[in-house]
Predict the 3D structure of the following.
Amino acid sequence: MSELTHFNKDGRARMVDVSEKDITVREATAGGKVIVNEETFDLIQQGKMKKGDVLAVAQVAGIMAAKRTSETIPMCHPITITGVDISFSLDETAKIIEIAATVRCKGETGVEMEALNAVATTALTIYDMCKAVQKDIEISNIRLLKKSGGKSGDYEAK
């Protein structure tokens, strides 16, 4: 296992200095799931939730979250994101909303945290908009699916 990079020589937290790293195109895709009951799923699918179009609002929330990741994750660098895309896949049988967030930048550090933050916020927004109908909504399996660019190279989850 490689050395932890977010600690200085005295063992205190620090933000890693990326000023010597090459600027490359970087992309990361994260995913997650929101599991709901049949009533909630139908209301989401039909756009009939009282708070509005759940997926449209959650999509915008995820994009906003990606752009503001460095404000909530202490050691993340503020980066210039060049693109964010949030997509949904609805499994009618299992009543699952699958979320995928892809984030791109041209910079010295990756966008994995931005993609993960986008998925988490998208899922939490779905929960928030549906909690009046269902309290036991399950958010699960938030994870990095793939990344490209940078010194550590490409990664794809198995």
Remarks:
- The chain has four helices and five strands.
- The first strand starts at residue 24 and ends at 35.
